[in-house]
């Protein structure tokens, strides 16, 4: 978070953005419908368009968290103050001190909104934060696995607020694109992943893109340590699949 006079400092919550969560690292296929989503997020992170809220949703592993963190890094590059809050890591905490003063920031990013179900204290706290951010001229970037209408939110006022602003659905990659994304990510890491190895990983490892990229990182580290090429036998040995 960019620190400015009068702006609250980032809380020591152990939350950090992934270095690899950038727009450049997000795989887009030819004529990909997600291109419109990425462009909208870039504009929003820059403060363009005049919209108060942008809600991004997509199934697990589709890249919602990646793009929300990418938007935060993009905001930082544009010298904008921001805070990223993944609710999956925070729901056991009291929301009041976490959300207090965030309306002074230019961008507040809240991930994992689907975790709000059965969380009345957090629902109330986020409703009030939404109003404070809107009244203060800031922006809210929201991410979830369901659409706003698909969330089981007991607080009707919050459910209504979440349907305001821009709403985008992130389309998951098909198998062909996942293989292409794995091979592209390997080249960005400085090695070439053979297509047959990529296919082997895809059909035996967890199929979400983030999980696949974590497998790739593990293989890269193991390959460097062992000074061995990444082959199917090596994948079996390292990943146990």
Automatic annotation (TrEMBL):
Domain of life, source organism: Bacteria
GO biological process: DNA replication initiation; negative regulation of DNA-templated DNA replication initiation
Family statement drawn from the similarity comment of this UniProt entry: Belongs to the DnaA family.
Keyword set includes Cell membrane: no
Residue span, Chromosomal replication initiator protein DnaA ATPAse domain: 20-168
Lineage: Bacteria, Pseudomonadati, Pseudomonadota, Gammaproteobacteria, Cellvibrionales
The keyword Nucleus appears for this protein: no
Domain (Hda lid): residue spans on this chain: 175-239
Keywords: DNA replication
Organism: Microbulbifer rhizosphaerae
Protein name: DnaA family protein
A Pfam family assignment: Hda_lid
InterPro entries from the UniProt entry: Chromosome_initiator_DnaA-like, DnaA_dom, Hda, Hda_lid, P-loop_NTPase
């Amino acid at each position: 978070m960019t620190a400015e006079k009068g702006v609250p400092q980032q809380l020591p919550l152990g939350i950090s953005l992934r270095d690899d969560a950038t727009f450049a690292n997000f795989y887009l296929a030819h004529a990909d419908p997600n291109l419109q989503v990425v462009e909208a997020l870039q504009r929003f992170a820059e403060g363009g368009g005049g919209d108060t809220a942008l809600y991004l949703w997509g199934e697990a592993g589709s890249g919602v968290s990646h793009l929300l963190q990418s938007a935060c890094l993009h905001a930082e590059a544009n010298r904008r103050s921001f805070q990223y809050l993944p609710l999956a890591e925070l729901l056991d905490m009291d929301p009041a001190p976490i959300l207090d003063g965030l309306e002074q920031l230019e961008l507040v990013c809240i991930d994992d909104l689907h975790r709000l179900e059965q969380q009345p204290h957090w629902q109330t706290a986020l409703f009030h934060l939404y109003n404070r951010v809107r009244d203060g001229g800031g922006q809210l970037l929201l991410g979830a696995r369901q659409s706003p209408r698909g969330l089981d939110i007991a607080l009707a006022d919050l459910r209504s607020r979440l349907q305001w602003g821009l709403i985008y659905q992130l389309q998951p990659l098909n198998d062909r694109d996942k293989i292409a994304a794995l091979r592209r990510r390997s080249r960005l890491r400085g090695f070439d992943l053979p297509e047959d190895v990529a296919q082997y990983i895809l059909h035996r490892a967890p199929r979400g893109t983030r999980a696949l990229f974590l497998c790739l990182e593990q293989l890269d580290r193991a390959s460097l340590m062992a000074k061995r090429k990444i082959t199917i036998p090596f994948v079996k040995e390292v990943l146990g699949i």
